[in-house]
Amino acid sequence: MKRLLLLLLTYGYFSNATAQVLPPELPWSGASEKYMRAANHPWVTPAEKSGLTETPDYQTTINWLQKLADSSPLLSMQPIGKSGQNRDLWLVAAAKPHIQKPEQLQKSDKATLLFHAGIHSGEIDGKDAGMMFLRDLVLEDSSVLDKINILFIPVLNPDGHENSSQFARVNQRGPVEMGWRTNARNLNLNRDYSKAETPEIQALLKVFQKWAVDLYIDIHVTDGIDYQYDITWGSTSKFPYSPNIDAWLKKELYPELQKALRKQGHVPGPLIFARDNKNPETSLVEWSPMARFSNGYGDSRHLPTILIENHSLKNYKQRVLGTYVFLQAVADRLAKDGKSLQNATMQDRSARPKKINLPPNWSADFSKIIPDTLDYLGVAYKKYQSPISGTEEVQWLGKPKNARVPIFSQAPEIQIELPKAYWVPASRSDIIEKLQLHGIKMEIVQKPTNVAAQFYRLEKYKVSGSAYEGRVRLAIDEMKIEEHEATFAPGSARITTDQALADLLVLLLEPRSDDSFIQWGYFHEILQPTEYIEAYVIEPLAQKMLKENPELRKEFEQALQDEKFAKNPRARLYWFYKRSPYYDKSYLLYPVGREM
Ligand SMILES: [Zn+2]
Fold first, then answer.
1. How far, in Å, CA of 46 to CA of 158, rounded?
2. Nearest Cα to 190, choosing from 107, 294, 306, 287?
3. pLDDT at 593
4. Distance (Å) from CA 187 to ligand 1 centroid
């Protein structure tokens, strides 16, 4: 009993303390507050009922949406899969006429907007904004549905959403209880787009293909540095895989979104991050996302994608209303001219580049980058010496501070020349299935097939010393290319690069790509030689090899100059084994072939 009391006291202390330790809030009120319905409105959302300070649990959310769908001829609730803990994943489809099956959208020539919330389920603004948005769409003005279809997944990570408490996101100002970042297996869905291991992301990848999505929005909340922006968003850096889509988003769409948000009292900003949170004004970065993230993935498969990051230090009401205005403005713009986005997408999907850049690494050398300049709406801060950390820490002061600051954009450093096709052996049916899940086209050979191809052999690599997203990653420092003929068994896949998804294919299969399956640890079996030779066999064999090959003798004598080698009998014997025809040829050989 005493222990329980202590626990309750501690709980109370910390839940109050969370609000107390956050930096001061910038005061806000805006015209968008008019969109909130009163508590006695028949279609008030559960979040509105609390004045946008709380968010409902998953079942309450789905029940409310189901009731709305039952009341409207424009909406239908569609199951799209199950979470790890077997919760149904729901998609709400809004269309005129009303949709029963995804195939109906494939035939529709209207543009289709998909948005979801709760991939990180504590960052749930999009769910409550989406409920208000659909409600107003069907009850007040559904005219955009004459031109577009709208799909809404209220929570992509319901298991994390139900793992909620007041202690899930300490850096965030509401709602009162928040869900957990990862899914039931503790995997971060927004690192899973490329390796596609989780049932939630697998369900989403099917939606992209089955529902013919034209524009996709993934809604988050970001912490990190403090600034005036309440809503930030972006797609890619200056080096997109989808240049036509990128130009449409940045030139046609974003200026209109900014205008709409400012008009409603919000402070829109670019998707920026500080490399050094203690010196934000000198280290702002325009991020080049990898394919494991929603926006990097969308760019690499030519699916127009927007990542929203609301700011965690703004209160929940302000963030939900900003998201609402954003959704409304996107729908309006798409309804006005969805065709031009579809044309841009078509151009990117039919491009057939000969070379493809790999995304730059976060650790790029900043001193080599010439930055752009940003008119930055920051927040004032001071630094102080902390007795806790023993170093300088930042204290945010809650006062606007504008400045012109440099913003860095990392350029890609590695370029891959495309083969005609990749070959994945039948023995890796798991990899073949993953590629199919992404919608990559391939031919499965029915009989043994000889192919002259390039293969990579690893020379220097490092297996990570710790786990990341449930996997042990492999860093590849050096490789060499070998060319030889190989026989691919029936069931192997020949995957042409003459297809719309070639960029994504390269990112998944080229070993130097950070999002390749090999770097994610799917090919560790090649790191181990599995056959060996006895000393009493290799010794006489080595004698014979030396006798027959004077060149080899010279090489061996050279090797003996190395004292460490000379003193290591095992290494000396192994030296000959490695040069004999008995050596394991598949050791360190990445088995995916490049047909040139
Ligand atoms: Zn997030």
1. 17
2. 294
3. 98
4. 13
CA of 218 to the centre of ligand 1 (A): 9
Measure 117 CA to ligand 1 centroid, in angstroms: 10
Cα 193 to ligand 1 centre (Å): 14
Q: How far is the CA of 220 from the centre of ligand 1 (A)?
A: 4
Residue 97 included in any domain: yes
The answer to whether residue 318 is domain-embedded is yes
- Based on the fold, state whether residues 64 and 168 are members of the same structural domain: yes
Dihedral of the CA atoms 357, 358, 364, 365 (nearest 10)? -30
Contact partners, residue 395, CB within 8 Å, separation at least 6: 23, 381, 382, 383, 384
Looking at the fold, whether 270 and 187 belong to one and the same domain comes out as yes
pLDDT averages per 10-residue partition of the chain, 596 residues: 50 54 92 97 97 97 98 95 98 90 81 97 97 96 96 98 89 91 96 98 97 96 94 92 97 97 98 88 87 97 98 96 98 96 98 92 75 94 94 93 92 93 98 98 98 98 97 97 97 98 98 97 95 91 95 95 96 94 94 98
Domain count, the chain: 4
Q: Could you tell me if 88 and 95 are in contact, meaning their C-beta atoms sit under 8 angstroms apart? A: no
Q: Tell me the residue range of the domain where 328 lies.
A: 2-351
The last residue of a domain, from among 386, 409, 432: 409
550 CA distance to ligand 1 middle (Å): 64
Expressed in angstroms and rounded, the spacing between residue 58 Cα and the centre of ligand 1 is 18
Residues 497 and 445 in one domain: yes
381 and 494 assigned to the same domain: no
Q: How far is CA 219 from the centre of its chain?
A: 12
- Do 60 and 83 lie in a common domain? yes
Ligand 1 center to 22 CA (angstroms): 19
From the CA of 232, how far away is ligand 1's center (Å)? 12
Q: Give the per-residue pLDDT at 495.
A: 98
- Say yes or no: 265 and 184 in one domain: yes
Q: In whole angstroms, give the CA distance from residue 14 to residue 20.
A: 9
Q: Is the pTM of this model over 0.70?
A: yes
Expressed in angstroms and rounded, the spacing between residue 119 Cα and the centre of ligand 1 is 7
Same domain, 381 and 467: no
Q: How far is the CA of 79 from the centre of ligand 1 (A)?
A: 24
Both 448 and 377 in one domain: the answer is: no
